[in-house]
Design a protein that fits this description.
Elements (H helix, E strand, L loop, with lengths): L2 H16 L5 H21 L3 H23 L4 E6 L4 H9 L1 H7 L5 H8 L7 E8 L2 E10 L4 E8 L7 H9 L1 H6 L4 E6 L2 H9 L3 E6 L2 E7 L4
Parallel strand pairs: 4-5
Antiparallel strand pairs: 1-2, 2-3, 3-4, 5-7, 6-7
Helix pairs in contact: 1-2, 2-3
Length: 219
């Protein structure tokens, strides 16, 4: 197969993959890459309509990526009670996706916790992004550390902005609620990479997976 044909197939593949992305920013990035290769391919084979059309698509993607990078978004935390109807509906709706990254979090067994009003050691926070409930974090206060049962972000908002808000810009919020040492398990490679990127350190491993910790007092 000629290298020019491979270029065309590669461009088609990348564009197709981009359309499968649930995250808008990744859709734009991959679509930009695919369109750029398609544009080069079009000019090489002297199919100028293909070249110019895809060059225009590249410019459109660049425009929206720049616009997204400059857009100021409002982030906030909203604590809810364990018997919140919306909390349970949220977990039910995203349960399948949650289990991909948090296989230890079983909704059916955790449902007992969600309905236990007397358990004051477990707190539930929605992460609001422009008032949209884009994520959920569940933290349990233990004797020597604070265990994160769930740190979940819905697919459309997985661009690390929420993580930056939670663990970088909003650390004082954790201090105000008495959290100083955060710990969690990672049994998925993507989750491990995410934890390392936001500042967690691997400290151990057990039968449930790798154990990561962030000591806020040392940050």
């Amino acid at each position: 197969m000629h290298i020019i044909e491979i270029l065309g197939y590669l461009a088609s593949f990348i564009v197709a993959i981009s359309l499968m992305m649930s995250s808008v920013i990744w859709l734009r990035i991959l679509n930009l890459a695919g369109s750029l290769i398609f544009s080069i391919y079009g000019f090489i084979i002297k199919s100028y309509p293909v070249g110019f059309l895809n060059l225009f698509i590249c410019l459109v993607n660049v425009y929206f990526l720049l616009k997204m990078s400059k857009t100021s978004e409002y982030f906030s935390l909203l604590e809810v009670l364990s018997n919140s109807s919306y909390l349970q509906k949220f977990i039910e709706f995203y349960n399948k996706d949650i289990n991909k990254f948090f296989p230890l979090f079983d909704f059916k067994s955790k449902n007992k916790i969600l309905n236990n009003l007397e358990d004051k050691d477990i707190r539930y926070f929605f992460i609001l992004r422009d008032l949209i409930p884009a994520g959920l974090i569940i933290i349990e206060k233990k004797e020597n550390f604070d265990y994160i049962h769930l740190d979940y972000v819905i697919p459309a908002y997985r661009d690390f902005k929420i993580a930056d808000f939670l663990f970088v810009k909003n650390k004082n919020y954790f201090f105000q609620h008495g959290y100083t040492k955060l710990r969690t398990h990672a049994s998925h490679n993507l989750h491990s990479s995410y934890l390392k990127k936001i500042g967690f350190n691997r400290i151990d491993k057990d039968e449930f997976g790798e154990i990561y910790e962030m000591n806020l007092l040392k940050e």
